[in-house]
Amino acid sequence: MVLPQRHRLRGRGVFDYLYQRGQRFQQGLLQLRVADAATNLLREPPETLEGELRFGVVISSKVSKRAVKRNRLRRLLHDAFLRQTFRSDLPPTWLLLNLRPGAVELSDDNLLEEWSTLIQRAGLTDS
Fold first, then answer.
1. DSSP SS3 for 71
2. What domains, with CATH codes, occur in the chain?
3. Is 74 strand, coil or helix?
4. Residue 37 CB-half CA count within 13 A
5. Segment 56-107, tens digit of pLDDT
6. Which of 19, 46, 50, 89 sits in a 20 to 30 Å window from 68, CA-based?
């Protein structure tokens, strides 16, 4: 499933902001950076961003040289993000997920289990 535009993180400034100011959480081969949304970095008007979670996945060529495999992992994680139930009281938040080398060898179930553990550890879900 494709990640809708309103949930996508785009632009170098947004990624730089998350790398510099985002709180880091790590679980196995996944690393999550979480930061409050900085609406001044986006092109959309701030009134359309109320209560929005935005998500980005970074998978370097060190994870897999084949773009097909990297894109499959990205789609899998986008789908997991869309299916996930997050806390209702979250302010507008941005999430950036990095995959480390070796993640391509994990089974889909193990990868999704690490994702689930990671967002629980970050305090983004109720359970």
1. helix
2. 5-121 (3.30.230.10)
3. helix
4. 26
5. 999 999 999 999 999 999 999 999 999 999 988 888 899 999 999 999 999 9
6. 19
